[in-house]
């Protein structure tokens, strides 16, 4: 049982990136002369590359970029390995190499067994085809034979709960149905090695649970080897006993997932300056064209203080007129559980219409921050009156809460979440007997 | 353990052909998808497959026979002459233009799943072949209309069909691979196809070409294919020119080898380029 099923040795992947250099001479403006010279240089390089049969790149300077550098690890039979890392850490490149979509530049990988990779749900789904037809199409793309699909067809359909709509083109499906059907096909693949990207980041909560259950079943009972990439710490913790943390294309930490994930969490972006540039942070969803969260400004801290007033100002740029806009700031622990939310869309709150496009600022004020001293991941979101999320920056940075003037000085329990003072009334006479006292109080 | 897959830089996979065989169902499914999707949301649906070649044939007959007064092969009806040439040419043109965009149209597959990439352009050639079969039925209908019966030479037609397929796959693969790297070819191909229609003996008989030039003319592999088709279908009036056929065959074979080689060489970087 302890044979290595996936062996990765010195794996490296280099990309060449073309870019426009910033050489501008003394003056600040770009002379036409420079543009022409640069254009000529890049055109001649492109022509040369084309003649040599090399990749043609835009821009006038070439840069090497190592998406992965000397990565080594092993996954044993039946093991479930989690891969974590920030955007751009090399996770997707690793997955692509393991799925044989792209070739490594150096190093090697040995995979012992049939591999199925799910880098996306519903790869190759065609909107014009019916659910039934798409099951066969998607199955074939994922490497199932038509016979296998036919055998598992009923199972797939009942897992996806789309029996009624089997003969409807999937373009008429709700997004939930679409995702369910897509995952159902993938979940019924029968490989020895399963490589999964964050496909579970979609679908409603209930279906996510079902998918996670299925994944668990696959690895525990059927002894399959799974490599799972996710941003969701909670999911990784519950699914993967071991984890690899990729950072800048290299392995930063490798081992039991509890330890790796804890270290990963404490290293995450900590907001130490008052202003957080939201515009540059990654979004899991939202950030659509109508509005973009640009900046967050802590007006008290950081660090924030437990039990003291907290105020924060959020800058948002509206691109089109919006109505009933509300914003919110949420604090989560590192398992991803939301502990506290401040938001402006309570009935008595002020939800303005942003009539003209432009930059707006909104200040949120709370009398007393109830979060116990600890580190928290911060979510910032904005939505409009039709309950559509306009933009959402989820857990992309953290903030520290420290003791305030009124925080009890005694040992503060880690993970205390919310600590609030409450009203108290003491009975100061000497108490003779508990029963007697209760009687007296009542 | 069942099988071990080794991933290394620059490694031509030993089991490429085995993989190709294993994914043969995908080839069928992709071709079926393209066919199933093609006539969705059209009113007359499959009728398009018949109307298009039929109208082209009418136009060509009118222009080359009536206006330009080009001779047919002996007593063969000019419409039949045109259609016998159009059959392989339409196949070639469709294979080339559809295949050249096939990888780009399926880029979401290329960047998300592994399978031998060769399947994608081959599937589009398969789709073009289905159109060819439909065209062939029209051909038969036309022959019945003119009361034109083929002789024993029709038995050689399967050979020329295979010739047409191989002559199409070679350039198609080459152009497909090129198009991933240099999107310029997206604009070149329609032009080449249009140009080729007039350069190849589609609207006229290749017997109008002076004998001294025929071998040179046959450097276009479709000349050999079209001549072969006419010889099989129309009989002795469209005589075969063996040196030309040989030249066309050699050029087609070269393109087949070159197309495969180029495709295989560039295939592993498709996902990075697309």
Describe this structure in words.
The complex is a heterodimer of chains A (442) and B (274). With 442 residues, chain A is α/β, with parallel strands linked by helices. Chain A has three domains: 21-58, no CATH class; 67-266, Rossmann fold; 275-412, abc- transporter (atp binding component) like domain (Coagulation Factor XIII, Chain A, domain 1), CATH 2.70.50.60. In chain A, 25% of the residues lie in helices and 32% in strands. Chain A contains nine helices and 19 strands. Chain A has helices spanning 32-52, 91-98, 131-141, 146-160, 175-187, 205-222, 233-239, 257-266, 434-441; strands at 4-19, 61-76, 80-84, 106-112, 115-118, 193-196, 225-229, 242-247, 250-256, 275-277, 285-286, 291-298, 304-305, 310-318, 326-332, 338-343, 358-366, 374-383, 389-402. In chain A, the strands form four sheets. Chain A has a six-stranded mixed β-sheet, sandwiched between helices. In chain A, β8 (242-247) and β9 form a beta hairpin. Chain B is an all-alpha fold and 274 residues long. Chain B has one domain (19-273). Chain B has twelve helices and one strand. Chain B has helices at residues 16-22, 24-38, 47-67, 78-105, 107-110, 119-146, 157-181, 185-199, 214-217, 221-234, 242-267, 270-273, and one strand at 4-7. In chain B, α2 (24-38) crosses α6 (119-146), α3 packs across α4 (78-105) and α6 runs antiparallel to α7 (157-181). The longest helix of chain B has 28 residues, at 78-105. The two termini of chain B are 35 Å apart. The model of chain B has no long low-confidence stretch (mean pLDDT 87). The interface between A and B is large, with 45 and 38 residues.
């Amino acid at each position: 049982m302890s044979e290595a099923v996936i062996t990765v040795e010195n794996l490296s992947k280099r990309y060449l990136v073309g870019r426009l250099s910033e050489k501008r001479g003394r003056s600040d403006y770009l002379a036409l002369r420079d543009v022409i010279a640069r254009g000529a240089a890049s055109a001649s390089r492109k022509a040369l590359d084309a003649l040599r049969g090399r990749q043609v790149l835009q821009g006038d300077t070439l840069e090497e970029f190592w998406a992965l550098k000397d990565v080594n690890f092993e996954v044993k039979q039946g093991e479930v390995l989690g891969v974590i890392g920030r955007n751009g850490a090399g996770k997707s490149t690793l997955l692509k190499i393991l799925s044989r979509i792209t070739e490594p530049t150096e190093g090697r990988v040995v995979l012992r067994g049939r591999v199925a990779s799910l880098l996306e749900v519903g790869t190759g789904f065609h909107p014009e085809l019916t659910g039934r037809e798409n099951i066969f199409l998607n199955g074939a793309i994922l490497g199932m034979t038509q016979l296998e699909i036919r055998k598992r067809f009923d199972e797939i359909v009942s897992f996806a709960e789309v029996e009624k709509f089997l003969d409807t083109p999937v373009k008429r499906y709700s997004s939930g149905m679409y995702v369910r059907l897509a995952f159902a096909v993938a979940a019924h693949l029968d490989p020895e090695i399963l490589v999964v990207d964050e496909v579970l980041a979609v679908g409603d909560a209930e279906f996510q649970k079902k998918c996670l259950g299925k994944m668990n079943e696959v690895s525990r009972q059927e002894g399959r080897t799974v490599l799972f990439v996710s941003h969701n710490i909670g999911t990784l913790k519950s699914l993967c006993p071991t984890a690899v943390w990729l950072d800048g294309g290299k392995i930063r930490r490798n081992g039991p997932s509890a330890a790796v994930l804890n270290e990963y969490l404490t290293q995450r972006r900590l907001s130490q300056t008052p202003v957080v540039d939201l515009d540059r942070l990654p979004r899991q969803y939202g950030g659509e064209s109508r509005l973009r969260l640009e900046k967050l400004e802590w007006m008290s801290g950081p660090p924030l203080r437990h039990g003291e007033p907290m105020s924060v100002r959020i800058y948002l740029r509206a691109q089109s007129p919006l109505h009933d806009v509300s914003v919110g700031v949420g604090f989560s622990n590192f398992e991803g559980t939301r502990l506290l939310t401040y938001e402006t869309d309570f009935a008595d709150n002020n939800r303005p219409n942003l009539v003209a496009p432009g930059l707006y600022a909104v200040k949120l004020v709370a009398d007393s921050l109830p979060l116990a001293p600890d580190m928290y991941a911060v979510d910032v979101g904005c939505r409009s009156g039709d309950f559509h999320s306009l933009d959402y920056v989820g857990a992309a940075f953290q903030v520290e809460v420290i003791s305030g003037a009124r925080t009890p000085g005694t040992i503060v329990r880690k993970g205390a979440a919310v600590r609030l003072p409450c009203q108290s009334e003491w009975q100061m006479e000497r108490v003779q007997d508990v029963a007697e006292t209760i009687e007296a109080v009542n | 353990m069942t099988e071990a897959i080794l991933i290394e830089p620059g490694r031509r996979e030993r089991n490429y052909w085995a993989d190709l065989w294993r994914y043969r169902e995908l080839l069928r499914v992709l071709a079926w998808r393209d066919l199933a999707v093609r006539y969705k949301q059209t009113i007359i649906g499959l009728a398009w497959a018949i109307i298009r070649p039929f109208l082209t044939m009418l136009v060509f007959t009118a222009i080359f026979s009536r206006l330009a007064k080009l001779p047919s092969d002996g007593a063969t009806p000019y419409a039949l002459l045109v259609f016998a040439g159009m059959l392989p040419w339409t196949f070639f043109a469709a294979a080339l233009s559809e295949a050249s965009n096939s990888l780009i149209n399926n880029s979401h597959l290329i960047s998300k799943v592994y399978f031998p990439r060769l399947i994608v352009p081959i599937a589009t050639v398969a789709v073009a072949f289905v159109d060819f079969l439909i065209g062939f039925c029209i051909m038969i209908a036309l022959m019945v209309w003119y009361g034109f019966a083929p002789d024993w030479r029709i038995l050689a037609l399967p050979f020329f069909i295979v010739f047409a397929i191989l002559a199409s796959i070679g350039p198609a693969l080459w152009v497909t691979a090129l198009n991933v790297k240099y999107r310029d070819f997206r604009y070149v191909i329609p032009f080449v196809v249009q140009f080729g229609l007039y350069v190849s003996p589609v609207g006229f008989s290749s017997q109008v070409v002076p004998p001294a030039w025929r071998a040179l003319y046959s450097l276009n592999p479709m000349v050999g294919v079209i001549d072969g088709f006419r010889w099989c279908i129309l009989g002795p009036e469209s005589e075969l020119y063996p040196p030309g056929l040989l030249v066309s065959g050699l050029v087609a074979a070269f393109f087949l080898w070159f197309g495969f080689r180029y495709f295989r060489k560039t295939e592993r970087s498709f996902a990075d380029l697309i």
